[in-house]
Amino acid sequence: MADVVMDSKHEPVDARDVTDLVLQEILAGVLLPGTWLKQIDLERRYKCTRPEVRRALDRLAQKRLVEHVPNRGYHVYEPDGRRAREVSEIRVILETAVADTIVENASAADIAALKTLAAHFDLMVLNGTMLELYEANLAFHRQLLVLGGNQELVDLITEIRQRTSSAPVSQWRTRARVERSGREHHLMVEAIEKKEAETLKELVRQHILQS
Amino acid sequence: MADVVMDSKHEPVDARDVTDLVLQEILAGVLLPGTWLKQIDLERRYKCTRPEVRRALDRLAQKRLVEHVPNRGYHVYEPDGRRAREVSEIRVILETAVADTIVENASAADIAALKTLAAHFDLMVLNGTMLELYEANLAFHRQLLVLGGNQELVDLITEIRQRTSSAPVSQWRTRARVERSGREHHLMVEAIEKKEAETLKELVRQHILQS
DNA sequence: GTATCCAAAATTGGCGCCAATTTAGGATAC
DNA sequence: GTATCCTAAATTGGCGCCAATTTTGGATAC
User: Fold this and answer.
1) pLDDT in tens, chain B (211 residues)
2) Cβ(A64)–Cβ(A181) under 8 Å?
3) Cβ contacts from A onto B, under 8 A
């Protein structure tokens, strides 16, 4: 019910399963930064074949979630402060840029959908795993961006978010921080309702930068 | 001398060769949109093994430059008007956003470097292949972005530029258009010299949108 | 007791074969 | 003459083996 949120592509469904499995384990913090991803381990862990593992690792290396060292293997990327900051900066630029369009285009139904997603996030704060929380947050922001009317932008941001979120756990260290995120989501929806684009921009800006 | 411009990554150098080879052929317009990329053909054409071809195709599919149809193969993506427009929009947002920083940070040496690259582009307009022209243009824009001080942004834009440039030939259809691009490059450098950020933004905006 | 060197075990990664699916061509029936 | 079915060729893609490189553990020398 929650795992079908992904994309609507007719992509290689074949081996993507393994890729996503490893991806989720990294995002969930099970596979910590620096961990060496041995092919035999993954092979056994996910009950798949060697070529499947290798393709998954290659894809993750392309996404720059793991690093490939020739003849040594693949290991989860160490968190890079600079990169994280730069990605946040990019997100601020892009997400504030579409704020005007969002405020303009948002229908009553859109706002209702956002409220549902914001509420769902709150629910996951109380009783949900770290991954579910991460996905609830992602779903809210995706829906927000969809209203910007640029599908490519939605996909792009979804993509770059993964790049530095090697340890999403570390981002939401404190409970207070998470709860504040929840409140900010509601504030954003309010700003949209009141058609206050500038307020929305400032909210988005702060929301992104303090992670 | 011109082919070392790429990135400074310590990436899998092993099979990337093949990936880049196919990539360049697509960018150069040799492999037209819709063309089916048969594994045997590529294997012979680039004198490489089957697994290498397959990895290259998988990577290009990830980059969404080719589409994978299960049990049918891979074919070059058809140009998508909507996506092209959306990518341009994203580029305008990002490249104008860093204009302020560029104007602030640009040293005399930086400006000189830009002038050299702009001149090199002009040279390629006169006597250079389509691919060389493409790369000269890319080099100029990369150098411009580097001054923005966000490395991640530089890489990101380089990446998304490739997504829709299935047929770069079609972008620079007329000679007049190309020559105008060359002149605009010089105007951008001038704006930076005069520290006119707003002028630069408008130039960048128009430069990107009319392609 | 510590450092160095050597050997064995483990891991990566290149390569090719074969089964499954699809496509094209020809033969037959209408 | 045309449409349909069936067979054969071709293409994709899954899977496993083996060589090359690296790492680890132990033995030996200092």
Assistant:
1) 333 223 333 333 333 478 988 998 888 888 888 899 999 999 888 888 899 999 999 999 999 999 999 889 999 998 888 998 999 999 999 999 999 999 999 999 999 999 999 999 999 999 988 878 888 999 999 999 999 999 999 999 999 988 876 565 556 667 888 899 999 999 999 999 999 999 999 999 999 998 7
2) no
3) 69
Residues of B in contact with A94 (CB under 8 A): 90, 93-94
CB-CB contact of B93 with B163 (8 Å): no
B24-38: b (≥16 Cβ within 10 Å) or e: ebbbbbebebeeebe
Name the residue range of residue A114's domain.
81-209
CATH value at residue A53: 1.10.10.10
Judge whether B191 lies within some domain.
yes
The answer to whether residue A6 is domain-embedded is no
Residue B20: both structure tokens together: 């880049």
| Interface predicted TM-score (ipTM) over 0.95 | no
Residue A2 in any domain: the answer is no
* A97 lies in the same domain as A191: yes
